[in-house]
Amino acid sequence: MSKLVLIRHGQSEWNLENKFTGWVDVNLSEQGVAEAKNAGRLIKAHGLKFDQAYTSVLTRAIKTLHYALAESDQLWVPETKSWRLNERHYGGLQGLNKQATADKYGDDQVHIWRRSYDVLPPKLEDDSEFSQVHDRRYADLDSNIIPRTENLKVCLERVMPFWEDHIAPDLLAGKNVIIAAHGNSLRALTKYIENISDEDIMDLEMKTGEPVVYTFDDKLKVVNKEKLDD
């Protein structure tokens, strides 16, 4: 039986400021650091041991992983970073205050942009200060691959090759895996793992800093799911 632990990064500075973040690289807030450390203490208390760690290339997820591993005395665990685990790209919404956006476009429209499975937000222009087309961490990617906007459907299509090439083989080999990533990249993985419908995925929430533990059989069927809390 292999185990997979998913952790949404702790509260970020833009979570605190109620801004759409997406691929913009922001840091953890003080509360976010505390949440990440607490996740590590919960992992240690439950005796979870990892063979492999994965995270995105965004600071808030990387730091969450490191705090959690450090608190559970597992900072040495091999770690791989991938842009495929990045948060969903929020397009032209990136950098905008969520309430101000709701005031402008209406609560219903913003809810659809945030939660619907296949509706795309407006595209982000390449000359925006919140664009990633000139970010050095994506220099090896074809510019056309770098998103200008994503919905959850596109995010899932982007995440799945990483699942198929890295995460699933690890689990099938009996390894225990931890992934520290983002609300929507983890919602995408959860949708796939649990076979959640396009409609029901709109209601799925991922709490910041809360470890979610899956136990799989040797065919990658979920035999148990547990959320760790105090």
Order of helices and strands: EHHEHEHHHEHEE
Which segments are poorly predicted (pLDDT under 50) over 5 or more consecutive residues?
Answer: none
Q: How many strand segments?
A: 6
Distance between the termini: 25 Å
In one word, what is the shape? globular
Strand arrangement within the widest β-sheet reads 3-2-4-1-5-6
- Rg over CA atoms: 17 Å
Task: Please indicate the percent range of residues in DSSP E strands (runs of 2 or more).
Answer: 5-15%
Supply the number of helical segments.
7
Largest sheet: 6 strands, mixed
Helix content: 25-40%
* Average pLDDT level: 96
Structural class: alpha/beta
Enzyme class: isomerase
Pathway: Carbohydrate degradation; glycolysis; pyruvate from D-glyceraldehyde 3-phosphate: step 3/5
Function: Catalyzes the interconversion of 2-phosphoglycerate and 3-phosphoglycerate.
Family: Belongs to the phosphoglycerate mutase family. BPG-dependent PGAM subfamily.
Protein described:
The chain has 230 residues and is of the alpha/beta class. The chain has helices at residues 13-16, 30-45, 59-71, 98-105, 107-115, 152-172, 183-194, and strands at 2-8, 52-55, 79-81, 177-181, 212-216, 222-227. It has a six-stranded mixed sheet with strand order 3-2-4-1-5-6. Strand 5 and strand 6 (222-227) form a beta hairpin. Helix 2 runs parallel beside helix 3 and helix 6 packs across helix 7. It is globular, with a radius of gyration of 17 Å.
Describe the structure concisely.
The chain is of the alpha/beta class. The protein is 36% helix and 13% strand.
